[in-house]
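FAQ

Q: What does a record look like?
A: Structure on top, sequence underneath. For example:
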């Protein structure tokens, strides 16, 4: 997972000590969002984002009750139930989905990435469109992984290996697509 913060910093942000109009930076520690985000990358996060302003393709900073660090992952599905929003997220480099999270678990939305000497603004149209495509392909990849891991396409030992091989090939194609998108826009 792309770990961002220590527990104390998360509590400061949750308590609202950072004004809603002030962005803050985090350093990425994991590989779950590679090649978009990699260890050492700096991201600018907008705190206290309204749930209605979080869309499929956005990268959000999430906290989980069982984890002391925050995680930056892409939103692949949004669902509203009884007036409350729930988000399904996934690391671009991960095969499976995260647990669904409520808006109370989201610390903010990544609005820019620091790459070398420049700031990549993720609200630009090209990055918004790329984020939606990446979320769609990532979601399909996650669903395919779930189906293949639960229900092998063929019966028996050979069928299970064929299913696994098919899943790996699809994931490799997805990773090539992802790298091509990120490199072309960077």
């Amino acid at each position: 997972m792309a770990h961002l913060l220590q527990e104390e910093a998360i509590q400061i942000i949750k308590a609202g000590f950072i004004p809603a109009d002030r962005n803050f930076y985090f350093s990425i520690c994991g590989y779950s969002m590679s090649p978009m985000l990699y260890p050492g990358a700096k991201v600018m996060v907008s705190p206290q984002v309204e749930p209605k302003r979080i869309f499929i393709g956005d990268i959000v900073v999430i906290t989980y009750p069982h984890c002391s660090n925050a995680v930056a992952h892409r939103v692949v599905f949004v669902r509203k139930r009884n007036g409350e929003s729930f988000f399904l997220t996934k690391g671009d480099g991960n095969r499976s989905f995260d647990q669904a999270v409520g808006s109370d678990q989201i610390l903010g939305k990544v609005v820019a990435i620091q790459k070398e000497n420049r700031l990549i603004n993720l609200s630009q149209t090209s990055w918004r469109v790329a984020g939606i495509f990446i979320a769609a392909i990532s979601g399909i990849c996650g669903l395919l992984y779930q189906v293949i891991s639960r229900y092998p396409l063929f019966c028996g030992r050979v069928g299970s290996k064929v299913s696994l091989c098919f899943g790996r090939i699809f994931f490799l194609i997805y990773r090539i697509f992802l790298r091509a998108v990120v490199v072309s826009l960077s």
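Q: Is there anything notable about this one?
A: The chain has a mean pLDDT of 81.
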